[in-house]
Amino acid sequence: MIPPPSPIKPIVVWWALWAAFLMGVCQIFYFLGIAGPAKAVHGPTDPLMAALGLLPVAASIVVRWAILPRISDPRQALPVFIAGIALAEASCFLGLYLFPAYKEALFAFSFLGIAQFIPLFARRYFPS
């Protein structure tokens, strides 16, 4: 007789989501930013204007280091975790569509913004 499959541990879901977002932003940037058709850069080239593209990453930093540590229930923390990662990912899209002159820099900030959400902290929600 075949034993029943073991249930997926919840921490694995956190790691899978984080890895999917991290690799997803790389694929999005590659297919929409680098491999896209070559065209003239249109849009704001003022660095102060392009700094608006960093606002979602700044919001994700607040989510990760100020809001997420205060949540003790994993069912409440998971949506906040996903929302924080999505905010960081938004900077990549802003770079691709609104600030193409700074798309590489905004992609890098987006990547690092997602990387800060590495779910090492999530172990506290699931004691062994």
What features would you describe in this structure?
The chain has 128 residues and is an all-alpha fold. It has one domain. The chain is built from 5 helices and no strands. The protein has helices at 10-34, 47-50, 55-67, 74-97, 103-115. The mean pLDDT is 90.
Shape: elongated
- Measured by DSSP, the beta-strand proportion falls in under 5%
In total, the number of domains comes to 1
Q: Note the total helix count.
A: 5
Radius of gyration: 18 Å
Helix content range:
55-70%
Let me know the number of strands: 0
Name the poorly predicted regions: none
Encode the helix/strand succession as letters.
HHHHH
Structural class: mainly alpha
State the distance separating the first and last CA atoms: 29 Å
Largest sheet: number of strands, sense, barrel closure: none
| Mean pLDDT rating | 90
